[in-house]
Amino acid sequence: MKPMPLTLLERQRWLAPFACLLALLALPAQAQLSERYGPYELHYSVVNTSFLAPEIAARYQLTRGRNYAILNLAVREHLDDGSTEARAMRLQGSATDLLNKQQVLDFQEIREGSAIYYIAEFRFIDEEWLRFEVDFRPEGGTRSYRFELRKQLYEN
What we know:
Elements: H1 8-25, E1 33-37, E2 40-48, H2 54-59, E3 68-78, E4 84-87, E5 89-96, E6 102-105, E7 108-112, E8 115-123, E9 128-138, E10 145-153
Antiparallel strand pairs: 1-2, 2-3, 3-4, 3-8, 5-6, 5-9, 7-8, 9-10
């Protein structure tokens, strides 16, 4: 059975977490990144906090600085009827540098309308490569998944 095209409302719900994030961060346009885990699609981004407006950083108690960034995650479940739905999740993770120095990521949940996303602040050194490992279990899910990302970060 061919999935039905998404309605305008469904498309808006799908894009809501990232539209909110971009508005939240007031950033230049960037590619949306995601990975599929069974029926779930995990969307992610890493953003230097120097791009945050001061009032946004204050609202979410984030440190604005050249060597601070956030990891942003949001998960959507693909439903049998072809639609998607934002899911809350339990997650824990870390960022590890090339010398195996590890920072535990402390995620905070943010809900705006039907959007649910998680942000965690971390420090880095200019041109440093970090390995992110996050274990997450979507609400209502039967298992946990592991998200891994290697990213080089630059001071801004």
